[in-house]
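Researcher: Here's the sequence for the chain we discussed earlier.
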Amino acid sequence: MEEIVNNSEELCKYLKKMIIDVLKLEEITADEIKDDAPLFKEGLGLDSIDALELVVAIENIFNVIIEDEDVGKRALASVNALTRFIQEEYNQRK
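Model: Thanks. This is the structure I predict for it:
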């Protein structure tokens, strides 16, 4: 997992596939998810239940903690924001 986390492009691809798999978004492909597009509201249109599912998956897969709602809002703002958050947290906990 460390190799993926330390390669921003690979982590971004991995996260897009993970979002699709975890949330069972069958109508969209990873290529259709833009790196800087919002994950909620006007972006992918995810909701609070989706956020909870993503937080649980991220914490389990990457062994990082999304401590509260404010951290979650920043981390889940876009795929790029999530990539940066995971890289920072993962490397701090090594």
